[in-house]
Fold this protein.
Amino acid sequence: MAHDDYKEMIPAHALSALDAAEERALNEHLAECAECRRDLAEWEVTAASLALSADPKEPSPEVRARLLKSVSSASSVVPLPFPKRKLWQIAAVIVFAALIISVIVLWQQNRTLKQQNDIAQLLTAPGTRVAQLSGTNEATGASAKLAYDQNGRALLIADGLPRAPQGKEYQLWFIVDKKPLPGKTFAPDNRGHSLSHDQVPQAARNSAVFAITLEPTGGVSAPTGAIYLSGAL
Amino acid sequence: MSSVANDVELLKAIAARDEAALAQLYDRYRVILFGLLMRILNSRAEAEDVLQETFLQVWRRAADFDETRGRPFTWLVTMARSRGVDRLRTLAARERTAVAAARDEAEVISDAASDAFRSEQRALIANALDQLPDEQKQTLLLAYFDGLTQSEIATRLNAPLGTVKTRMRTGMMKLRELLAGKGKSFGF
């Protein structure tokens, strides 16, 4: 699709009215096109003006009280800075070994042959990279590994995640220049383990930060929930 | 200091964990955002819950706000609307019907009382929407308040998808045109 085709989709995207496939394609283009990102920011202003066509209404005072109570309690969530890169080569080797072990464990779990082949192919492909994600204060015991090849074909293995509440799923994000691009959602099993496939957008393959948040089932186009895991290459 | 500068200052204070600043921002926007969420969710309980979630998100994410990329108002409204629509989508159809049956209309604030709530801008947007052809206006409102995608709108209206896409795009362009030049008084 050409730049002009994407440009035409932006007003609908500002209303989050694009169908899933179009939205995903446009998001990939947005990651690479500064002009379209500026365009989107302008259309978002137009979309937001629609909010003023709703009649203003007064919420009950309890909402304010609850809000202030929850931020003043110790439970308030402070976003963690993403971990700095250090000794990443060594870490990558260790992570890779851990991945292989995870894969062997998975093989023992009677996964289908196709899945095994996919994983093996991904891990042995030249240029496959591995990012380690560590748990934030939301999930201190959690960890994850994201491996992806030169084409962005990715495998995410997460462990130690709390069970997602009803109506929620975890969602992977690729953060490029502070802008989060949505990845797929997944739900860990009873042991907090999850194996899922994804596609890393072109723009995120070299310099992205990766994060996992808790979001409404089906995922969202921009993160709304707390960060549970984060990391970089 | 203009109200916009104030909003930016408030967000910076919130990013620095200033609870009083959060309370101030809440007081400034609660009525607009609650009106928006009531329109989306049609339920006082759900709308209040999402309103609280939205401001909790502001508390957590204030540091991410980038004033070079847009105004605080747009940021807040976009966040509230997105959470509202997400909630609408996650509510089971059964629940939604029950909610609609027990529809609990919150009292509308009179224009005189809502002076602090951008009544001038509200008049501008109402006027602009009135100037759109009905089918364009309907397409924008179904997307914005009902959270429907273009395909869902096409199904709902029994119209070809291409027609819906054209109406939405033309409607948005016309709306932007009608609001253009009003930027100063519009205050986004």
Q: What stands out?
A: The beta strands of chain A are 129-135, 143-148, 153-159, 168-176, 179-186, 194-199, 209-216, 227-232. The first strand of chain A starts at residue 129 and ends at 135. The CA atoms of residues 97 and 225 of chain A lie 31 Å apart.
